[in-house]
Each structure stands twice: as structure tokens, then as C-alpha cells.
Design goal:
heterodimer, A: Rossmann fold, six-stranded mixed sheet, four-stranded antiparallel sheet, 8 helices, 10 strands, B: alpha+beta, Alpha-Beta Plaits, Cathepsin D, subunit A, domain 1, 3 domains, seven-stranded mixed sheet, 11 strands, binds magnesium ion
Chain lengths: 234, 440
């Protein structure tokens, strides 16, 4: 029995067709264990985001196998995939994708609304997670009135609100200055350490990558190197 | 209320608040409104006019009368040139034998009346005799012209006083129905005062000599639009006047009428009436009921209303494209939000439903406002028309809003809106979250 949360073998993905065809991913294999933090590192255009989208079941591969907790993802129904994304995965994107004119709380509880959670429970859980991220006092503010660091914390709160097992973060600090970026990183790693949430972080920032348990370097859609970070391992 | 609110209630104000496009939705609703308004008005006109005709037909009453004429020979086909000469036919037509019925192809003679009377189901037949009395006079108050409504038997009189004319069978002497407008000149104070009085009717014989005939006033009719003006004479009076008219007439002149009125059992079913008509047709007579004649008018009116409705539906289809356009713009505008919701596990089916609901809601709003506005306009228009242009048509309510067609229109508009919504809804539900979330 495979203990990995996610496992991929020989994954490939191309965009466009004919002469415009571009192979963004050319056979990547990888296993992600529960509770680990993995950095996918590479230059811009190397295929990091493409790989993450496939891992998060946001897109379907052209070739290869993807196992979610041992189950072949291609055998899951659309509904099951939606449930998985809603309940087991959390997303943090470089662009925050917050609804600017809605309040912080409303933004945070969006996954719960999609899941059909009642208003009262939504509010309680939303406030609890905002509390944890020290944003409770901003709950009623409009998202548009927050600073970049606060926005990314709201995004993390939204990713956390449904108690996910895996958080996917695509360049989570890309839009933030070094100090704020550092704070956001601290939050993500503390979630990983204290709550055992698996982290998959896409980044071209080597310092951020160095904080992860494992680093996987890709270039032109291929894995070039994989490093276990000895100083971070327990 | 618009999609933003619906999305708001369905998945959260977080999305709802950001998706405001009130103006666009309002404009689309106006487009639907115009179509629904027009369709409601045109269908109300249809309902109003046909229900007016229905009540008029009911007023006509005489449902047991057939108007009978001789079926016209097929006209010589004009594009084929003249018909070939037939010596036998020429001799027959030139014979001038008997009472002249051989050549008078379109005149009903005594023989025809006998044949018609012989048809099963016909109770009695009377040729409509054209009598032309010269004057009517009451109590020496002066002579006035008298118009006669020859087809009075077709209608049930609308009486201001007295009772209808009695049928030929129960005839109690000469009877006449006057018209309210005649009363003053003749010297009657009221309609009731005229009933039972005897008026003198003057008519000339074939040689021009005047004769007077007395007639009892059976009743007084209100002026009526559809039944045509003119006093009504009973069969006995008509016969007597006709006889005087033809006194001194040369013997070989054709006698006959162009039209005969036949009664059948008022309780006859439609099938039985059809049988009578078919029997008569087989013998060369064209027989139509009042309902047949009115039916022709109704067919023409339904045709006109149908064309008007078609234009209204065209307006609605145009509005449908407005809905498509509005929703497609929304899909485009909310690409990211839709993508985000899908990434977070929202199913395509729910997104499809949201957009369909929005479309149907636009349709519902437009049709309800359209129907209400049409009813308001209709009430004003009815009042205005009844007081001016149509003042003479008592009881005509041009626009009539019946619940059934109104409900049908609302459903039709919502259906068109739903169909218009399917394309944008499909596009939204199939949106790939990656494409939505990727752009930098
Ligand atoms: N939808 C797409 N159509 C065509 N090419 C794409 C599409 N998405 C990504 N690519 C290309 O695939 C390559 C990998 O993209 P991506 O995974 O986003 O790289 P990274 O995240 O490492 O910057 C890039 O060259 C990019 O231009
Ligand atoms: Mg990227």
C-alpha cells in the first residue's frame, strides 16, 4: 500500500497542437508523503505551475499516472474531484483572487459556501481561522482595503477554512516584499509543523525552497535534481 | 435583483458583491419587457375582439336559421377564353317556358322552396321577399319613409318595449317592429306607448296606385350596429305587401327571391346541421348559418391578430439575443470568479443552474412588468376608445386581459429566456479553472 498523499509517474502535458504544440511537462515522476513540505523549483516557464495544477487535479495530464491516496485520479468522477478540491485541498495563488468589494470574512468562507455549510457554522469557522491568522479585527473590512501581506493571509485563511490535508501554494510570496513574504512563509511552515498539513510550494525563490523538507528542481518540463533537506528533516 | 444577488444567495455575497452590473441587466429586462408588452397587448386585442363577436353572435340568437341561395354556377374560367358553344343549352335557355325558372339560375322559385322544404330537418322555408313600402303613418300625424330590414329573421331583436314578431305559424295578423328613432316623428311619446297601436303602411302596386295596409306595432327595437337598421315586418305583413306590389304585374315575369330563410330545429347538433347543409348542397343550394357567416369574420380577425402576435414574438426573440449577450458578457467578466469557484470545488452543474436562473429571472421580470404595463395601458386605452372612436359599439372592450393567455405569455417569455440562457450557461459551466486563474 502506497502511503503517499499524491504520487505521479511519468506525467506529461502539452499545450496547443500541430506546429504550435508545446510540451510543458515531459515525463515527471514524484511522490509526496503526508505531512512533508515540498518545493518545486525552477525558472519561469519551466513547467512548475503546470505540474502543480496537475497535482491539484485542476487539470488533466496528457500522459502518465496520478494517484491520490492510492486511487487513480482518472477513475474519479467529476463530483469526487470537486469534493476533493473543496475538502482536502487548499489553494494559495500569487495573485490573491480575492473578491475586492466583499468583506474579509465573506472571502474566507467561500469554500464553505460551495460545500453547502450553513451560515452560522460558516461564520464560526471563518472567525476561528481569522483568529488564528490574527485577522479577526479585519473580518468586516473589505478585502480591497487590505495591504498585500494581509491579503495573502486572508488567502491562506481561505485555504485553511475547510481543514485541508494539502495546501498548494503557487509563488505565495511573489507579490510581497521580503519582510512580509517572510511572515507569510512562517505561517505556512507553522501550519505544516503544527498541524501536519502537507505543503506543495511552487517557487523560483531559492531561499523559500531551502526551508522545505524537499526540493525538486525542474527545467524545460523535466526533473533535473531532487534534494532532501537534511537540516530540516526531523 | 440580478444575478449578483442570486449568486449571492446561492454561493455567497463574497462573489455577489463584486458582480454588479445592474445597468446591463436592467437594459436587458427592458428589451424583454418591450416584447412581452407587445405580445400581451396584441393577444388582449385578439381576446377582446373575439369575445365581443361571441357576445354579438349570442345576441344574434337566431341559431336555427339557414340563409339559402342557389349555388352559383362555376364562373367561366376567364383565362381559358370563352366556353364552347352548345346548341342544346342555347335552346333550353331561350325557351322561356313555364314560370321562367329555367333561365333564372340564381333566383329561388316556388319549386325551389318546395325542394328545400322537402329536405329532412328543415321546418319551414320563406323566400326573403323584397318589399318596398313607401311610407308609414300613425294617427294622421304625417307620412314618413319606412326602411325595412329584409333579413330581420336572422337576428333576435334587441327590444326597448313590446315583444318579438310572431312566427309564420302562430301569426296573429300584420305585425311590425319599429325602431326607437322612429318614435318621435310618428308621434309616440314613449316606446311603450307605441306597442299595440296600429300604424298604416302605404305601398304602391305594379301600376303605381297607392294602397294602405294596417299593422300592429308588436315592439320597438333599439338602434343596433350589427343587425342593421330598418323596421322588421312579420311574414303575414310581408306577404300582403308583396302581393300588392305585384298586382298588375305581367304574367310571364319571373317570380322569386335571391334568398330564402329556412328554420331548423334549434336543438340540432352541429352534425345534424352539417347534414342539412350537405343535403342542400347536393341539390344545388348554398346554405349558411349565422355562425358560419360570423365565423368568416372571426377567421379574418384571428389572422390579423396572429400576424400582430408574430411581430411581438419577433421582438421577444430579439430580446432573447439581448439576454444571450448580457449573460455572455457576464461570463467573460466573471471568468476569474467562476474559475476560482470551480477550483474550490463548485460543480459545473451549479454554475449552469445559476446562469439559467438568471436568464429565467430576467425573462420573468420582463414579462411581469410587461404584462402589468400592458394592463395599465389597456385600461386607459379602453376608456379612451369607448368614449371616442368606438362610442357606437356598445360593450366593445378592445383590450381584454384573460388570465390564461397572460399566463401562457409569461411562460413563453420565460422559456425563450431560458433557451437564451443555455449558451452562456454552458460556456460558464465548462470554463476551465486553470484558464481563468492563470492569466497574470
Ligand atoms: N494555456 C497554455 N497554452 C500554451 N502554453 C502554455 C499554457 N500554459 C502554460 N504554457 C506554457 O507552458 C510553459 C510552462 O508554464 P508554467 O507551468 O506556467 O511555467 P512556470 O510556472 O514554471 O513559470 C510555459 O512556457 C508557458 O508559456
Ligand atoms: Mg507559474
Amino acid at each position: 500500500m502506497d502511503t503517499s498523499v499524491l504520487a505521479v509517474r511519468n506525467l506529461s502535458k502539452s499545450y496547443g497542437r500541430g506546429t504550435a504544440r508545446f510540451d510543458a511537462l515531459k515525463g515527471v515522476s514524484l511522490q509526496i508523503q503526508a505531512g512533508e513540505s515540498l518545493a518545486i523549483v525552477g525558472k519561469s516557464g519551466s513547467g512548475k505551475s503546470t505540474l502543480m495544477h496537475l497535482l491539484a487535479l485542476l487539470d488533466t495530464p496528457d500522459g502518465g499516472v496520478l494517484l491520490v491516496k492510492g486511487t487513480d485520479a482518472s477513475e474519479l468522477s467529476v463530483k469526487q474531484v470537486s469534493r476533493l478540491r473543496n475538502e482536502d485541498f487548499g489553494f494559495v495563488f500569487q495573485q490573491f483572487f480575492l473578491t475586492p468589494n466583499a468583506t474579509v470574512l465573506e472571502n474566507v468562507v467561500l469554500p464553505l459556501k460551495i460545500a453547502g455549510v450553513g451560515a452560522r457554522e460558516r461564520k464560526a469557522r471563518g472567525m476561528a481561522v481569522l483568529e488564528k491568522l490574527e485577522l479577526a479585527d479585519k473580518a468586516k473590512n473589505k478585502a480591497i482595503n487590505l495591504s498585500g501581506g494581509q491579503k495573502q493571509r486572508v488567502v491562506i485563511a481561505r485555504a485553511l477554512v475547510n481543514n485541508p490535508t494539502v495546501i498548494f501554494a503557487d509563488e505565495p510570496t511573489g507579490n510581497l516584499d521580503t519582510v512580509t513574504g517572510r511572515l507569510v512563509e512562517d505561517i505556512l511552515f507553522s501550519l505544516n509543523k503544527e498541524h501536519g498539513i502537507t505543503l506543495v510550494i511552487v517557487t523560483h525563490d531559492v531561499e523559500l525552497a531551502a526551508r522545505c523538507d524537499r526540493r525538486m528542481f525542474i527545467r524545460d518540463g523535466r526533473e533535473v535534481q531532487s534534494l532532501q533537506n537534511s537540516e530540516n528533516s526531523p | 435583483m440580478n444575478i449578483t444577488d442570486i449568486i449571492g444567495t446561492a454561493i455567497g455575497t463574497a462573489i455577489g458583491n463584486s458582480l454588479r452590473s445592474r445597468l446591463r441587466t436592467a437594459l436587458t429586462v427592458i428589451a424583454v419587457f418591450i416584447g412581452a408588452f407587445t405580445l400581451t397587448i396584441t393577444s388582449a386585442i385578439g381576446t377582446g375582439i373575439s369575445s365581443y363577436i361571441d357576445t354579438q353572435v349570442a345576441g344574434f340568437g337566431a341559431a336555427d336559421v339557414l340563409s339559402i341561395t342557389i349555388t352559383a354556377d362555376d364562373a367561366a374560367p376567364t383565362d381559358d377564353g370563352p366556353a364552347p358553344y352548345d346548341p342544346d343549352q342555347a335552346i333550353a335557355a331561350g325557351g322561356f317556358q313555364g314560370d321562367g325558372s329555367e333561365f333564372a339560375t340564381s333566383v329561388l322559385t316556388a319549386d325551389d322552396v318546395d325542394i328545400i322544404e322537402g329536405v329532412e330537418g328543415i321546418l319551414d322555408v320563406n323566400p326573403v321577399l323584397q318589399v318596398t313600402p313607401r311610407y308609414v303613418e300613425y294617427d294622421g300625424n304625417g307620412k314618413f319613409e319606412l326602411a325595412v330590414n329584409a333579413s330581420a329573421a336572422l337576428s333576435t331583436p334587441d327590444l326597448a318595449a313590446g315583444s318579438p314578431l310572431q312566427g309564420a305559424a302562430e301569426s296573429s295578423g300584420n305585425q311590425i317592429l319599429l325602431i326607437t328613432s322612429d318614435l318621435d316623428s310618428l308621434g309616440f311619446e314613449t316606446a311603450n306607448a307605441a306597442v299595440g297601436e296600429t300604424v298604416m303602411i302605404g305601398t304602391a302596386d305594379y301600376l303605381g296606385e297607392m294602397h294602405e295596409v294596417g299593422a300592429t306595432v308588436a315592439g320597438v327595437q333599439n338602434q343596433s350596429t350589427l343587425t342593421g337598421g330598418g323596421g322588421a315586418l312579420n311574414q303575414a305583413l310581408t306577404d300582403e305587401l308583396y302581393e300588392i306590389q305585384n298586382t298588375g304585374k305581367p304574367g310571364n315575369t319571373t317570380e322569386g327571391a335571391f334568398l330564402a330563410m329556412a328554420h331548423f330545429d334549434a336543438a340540432s347538433s352541429e352534425e345534424e346541421i352539417n347534414t342539412i347543409q350537405a343535403d342542400l348542397a347536393a341539390q344545388g343550394y348554398t346554405a349558411v348559418t349565422v355562425a358560419d357567416q360570423i365565423g368568416i369574420i372571426q377567421t379574418v380577425i384571428s389572422g390579423i391578430v396572429g400576424v400582430l402576435n408574430a411581430f411581438a414574438v419577433i421582438a421577444l426573440i430579439a430580446a432573447g439575443f439581448g439576454i444571450i449577450n448580457t449573460l455572455l458578457m457576464s461570463v467573460q467578466e466573471w471568468t476569474r470568479e467562476i474559475g476560482l469557484m470551480k477550483a474550490m470545488g463548485m460543480g459545473g452543474g451549479r454554475i449552469y443552474t445559476l446562469f439559467s436562473i438568471e436568464a429565467v429571472f430576467i425573462g420573468f421580470l420582463g414579462s411581469i412588468i410587461g404584462a402589468l404595463a400592458a394592463m395599465g395601458t389597456g385600461a386607459i386605452a379602453n376608456n379612451f376608445l369607448a368614449g371616442t372612436v368606438l362610442a357606437d359599439l356598445e360593450g366593445l372592450q378592445v383590450l381584454r386581459f384573460a388570465p390564461l393567455p397572460m399566463g401562457a405569455i409569461t411562460l413563453l417569455v420565460m422559456l425563450i429566456a431560458f433557451l437564451a440562457g443555455t449558451l452562456p450557461a454552458r460556456r460558464a459551466s465548462r470554463q476551465n479553472p486553470i484558464d481563468a486563474l492563470r492569466y497574470e
